[in-house]
Design brief:
single chain; 87 residues; mainly alpha; 3 helices; globular
């Protein structure tokens, strides 16, 4: 029996996959210290990571809509996870 993520596999095809991908983007930005790249708060960097993930999923002109805001929010949430679990 194999154990997989099912609908939560990171990707652009399902809603849960988009959510998981955005969360992992925030985690990756935090773990690689990319959230200190510019003199802005870390929350801005992780939100931009989520927006970048949304742009890469759409592969078209950026649309500042509800879906983009959800991806930014999920990415910010993902940015908090390493701080919670790595203590």
């Amino acid at each position: 029996m194999t154990m997989g993520l099912g609908d939560y596999t990171p990707g652009c095809n399902t809603t849960n996959g988009q959510m998981t991908g955005a969360i992992l983007t925030g985690v990756a930005m935090r773990m690689t210290n990319l959230d200190t790249l510019f003199p802005l708060p870390p929350i801005v960097h992780t939100a931009l990571g989520g927006l970048t993930f949304d742009y890469m999923c759409r592969m078209s002109a950026f649309q500042f809509d509800q879906r983009a805001m959800k991806m930014a929010g999920y990415s910010v949430g993902g940015g908090f996870l390493p701080g919670i679990f790595m203590r």
